[in-house]
Every structure is written in C-alpha cells, then in structure tokens.
Amino acid sequence: MAKKLMDIPEFDHSLRLSSQSVEELGINVYEMLQNPDPTQYQNNILNCMLAITSIQIAFTDILYKMEVIPDGIIGHSLGEMSCDYADGALTREQTMKLAYYIGAAIMNNAFPSKGGMAVVGLTWDEANKRCPEGIVPACHNGQYSVTVSGSADKIKEFCDQLLKEDVIAKPVDSSGIPFHSPDMLKIYDAMLINMRKAVADPRPRSSKWISTAIPEEKWNEDKALFCSADYYANYACSPVLFYEALQKIPPDAIMIEIAPHCLMQEILRKNLPKACTNIGLRLMHSMKEMLMQIVKDVHVKFIDMELEQVGSDSLVALFLDKSELMIVAILGVWKSGAAYVPIDPNYPDQRVQFILNDTKASIIISNQHHNEQLNRIMQKGNLSPMNIQIDNLELNNGSKTRIMNNCMNADPTNLAYVIYTSGSTSLPKGVLIEHGTVISFYNSISSLYFKTTENSSPEYEQHQEAILFLSNYTFDMSIIQLIISILNGNKLIILPNNMTFGDSDSYNYVNDHGLSIVTGTPSQLLNIDFGRLPRLNILATGGELLQKFHVDYFRQNFCGLVMNIQ
C-alpha cells in the first residue's frame, strides 16, 4: 500500500516508528505495508486499521516537518483516531495501539449477522425517514451524501430499491462490520476494555479538533472534552457528523485530506465554501520528497512577494520545461487568483519577446538553465518583469511564514490562462480562456467519460486512472490532461526529460505507473503502439481534424473508448 513512498526518508522513518510501537503485540505493520498482496486486508479490519492509521500518521509527520500546522482538525470515521495524534493529545504509540485494540475487539467478537454499509444520495433527513428496520444513517458525509449501516442483506435490498429510483447507492467494503450503527453496541464493552490498555488516562482535546463523534450541543461535556477510550468506544457506535463539522470551516480555508486514496475529494468539493482550497494528500507513485519541498517553496514565495499587483485577471508568464515544477507553477498562479501564460523555451526569441510585451506580465516563472536566454530576450526588448527561478527557491530556515497560500476568489468570468496562436499568417494572438470555460468543459466530459467518486463502480476505490501529460503546455490539449487528473483525483504521469514517448523505455515507464488514459492530436496518437499499453482504456483526440483513416486505425488497433474533443 505505502511501499512506493518508502523511498522518502521521513515517510519511511515514520512508518518504522509506528510499526515498532505495536511490535510487542505480535504484529509487524512495516512488513505488512511492504507486502503488495491486497488479500491481507480482505475481511481483516485489524490490518486495515493499522495500515491506514500508520499512513495517516506518516503524512501528518511530513506536513509538520514542512511547518504546515493545522488551525483545525476533522476526522471521518476511522480517521478520527489519527486526529488525536495530529492534535498532540496522544502519542504515536497510543494512537497505533488504539487502532490495534479496536480492530482486535472487532475481530474477536462475532456479530449475530454479517453487516454492511453503503453510500446513498440522500439528505440526512431523507435517510432517517427512509431507512428500513435494521439499517441506520451512519455517516453524514455531505448535504446529499449519507453512509448507511446495518444488516448486509438489508443494505443490499435498500440499495436495489434506491437504484430503481435513480438514486445513487454504492456499497462500501467495511469487511462485514456495521460501523456507527447500534449493532456495534454488542461489542462496546469489549472495545472499551481493550482501548483502556492504550489510553488509561483521558487527555484534553484542543479547540482545533472539531469532533464528528459528538453533537455540538454536547461539546462541553466531559466525554467531548477529553480524548479517551470512552470517546472512541462511543464513536464506533455513533453516527459520524462530518457534514456538521464542515460547517465550522472558514470560507477561505485550505483543506488537506490525508488518506490512502482520498475518496472524500468529490464530497469536499461540493460541500466546502467555494473559496476554500481543497488538497488531497494520498498515496501516489509519482510523489517525491523534492516535489513536496518545491510545493512548499512556491507557496511561501508567493506569500513573501509583494503580490498586491497579482490578482484576478493578472497575467503570470511561465517559461518552463515539462516537469513537476511546471504543474506546481500553474497551481501556484491559479491559487494566487492570476492567470498563466505558457511560453515554450524552444520558441524563437522574437516570439517570446512579443508575448511578454503583449501580455505586460510583471512576473515570469522560469527554470534556472533558461536564465541566459531570458536575460538576452528581456534586455533586447527592454523588459523588466520579476524572474522567479522555480528550481532555485529556498526557504529561510528561520522564517515563521505560514504556508497559507490565499485564494483570491476568482470567479467564472476571470481568466484562467492565455494561449497564443502560432502567428503563421499574421501576428500571434492571445486566446483568453476563463475559469468558467475550463470548468464547463470539465463538467461536460468528466461525467460521461471519466471516472469520479460518484459515477464509478465500487472496485474503483482500488483503482485510480493514470493520465499521460503528453502535450506541450502551450496547447489546449494540455489543460485536458491537467484538469482531468487534478479534479478527479487521478494520477498525472510526466515523462523524465531524457525520455520521449514512443521510445522503448517510455512504454515501460508509463506501464509501471499504470497508464490508462492518453489525450493528444490524432497525429500523435497514430504513433502509439497500443499493444504495449495493456491498461490503456481511453483515447481522447483533439487539436486537429479527426479524419476517417485516423478512425480506421484506432478501430483496428485499439478496443477502448475513443473520444473526439473539439
């Protein structure tokens, strides 16, 4: 599960410490996480809880090391156990042992019948009215999202009925456990006795930690004020009031979801204030320590600069090679409220100078090795924008700056990016693309062709789409690749600089990262050896005319979905 991130020293170290904290109980969590066999988690809630908790602790450790200190903490279901660690109420050892003891209590005490859970597209009130006997609303996820819990057979019957009414109803793999339902009261005493071995003495919870276990009107009671075995035993048997907790989040907050798969992203996007910045921190094959450090550097740099001049409809020029840094720069510009202007470093000097003159961009974000070229262009054109070399950003270790990159509340009519035409018949012209256009385009194709948490099957929880960033970022096709990956929580694959797609090594590279979607012009896609891409299931073409011989070739060589985006 977490093996791909163990090459990050801090992540690996945290996992080892968490594993050591429960070794005396006869279980090796680190060894379990190294084992790619998914069957070790099937119908084994103990292994699931230990794995998830150790991963959440590791991500928390990394965020704190990056000085990303939360102003608020919210847990959803089992995630409430990691809140105590993030809050500082409990130690790593106590948190891991809590996960062990609650998991062991569940494994060692049989339920009268198999339990089940499902996510349904109902309001909380509707779910309370419609749930038949044997089923209860268990998690208030969002305004129109509720997880119900109870008898597995009755859950299936209820889902079948809702599906006939065209209401979303998707089973959740809970290992046969009816979490957050009255059925859990049957093992309440066993859980309480076990968990008191981990937390003998209650510890105060800080005001940062917004409880999803106890209604707000009871927050002043002792059970709510302290982190204790009683708190968690009660939580396992009580509804999750997640949506209620979301109402406490400030409208300009930055929300970071910490989870192996970040399955709450769709719910968070729909239920958080629009001005909130929502980030999913999940297990990703492409995540590297360098990228996390650069993300931090860019955020701090954008705050430390005098950004009064940058806001809605401001233009920031990008002069970057294709890499993770380019993605970080685009997101940094958007989060500042500005729009980006992509410039290919391979453009002739005259074209670069024209674009910089035409946009009057006051800031350029570039790679260090393009510095000589940029200085020559700016000197010749008498240009003086601020040049931020993204790969040269460093933090002042003594800085107390908070990493809270404020979003400037750009609305649908504000610019998202500006792309320049080739200028083959006349001077290049900037094409202005607004945020509303980008989102409308995303909405129009995503619900039909791309998997999201709402339109995917249950097995999608174990599978994330992987999209190749094939296009030059100066073309519109690049925005398809970017937003479909980011907004759907999918993986974006960027080839190393020394690799070209089509080379033998490139096929091995993208297959190792699970490539499943490729977008590009028909001419680009004709050069693909589809037989070497076993997981590829979607081709999306655009940017030039799709002709009959293109279609014939795709039909003969590719059996997946072909989209023509114009």
TrEMBL record:
Residues 1-289 form the Malonyl-CoA:ACP transacylase (MAT) domain. The keyword Phosphoprotein applies. GO terms for molecular function: transferase activity. InterPro entries: Ac_transferase_dom_sf, Acyl_transferase_dom, Acyl_Trfase/lysoPLipase, AMP-binding_CS, AMP-dep_synth/lig_dom, Malonyl_transacylase_ACP-bd. It comes from the Eukaryota. Keywords: Phosphopantetheine, Phosphoprotein. It holds the Pfam family Acyl_transf_1. This is Malonyl-CoA:ACP transacylase (MAT) domain-containing protein. It comes from Acrobeloides nanus.
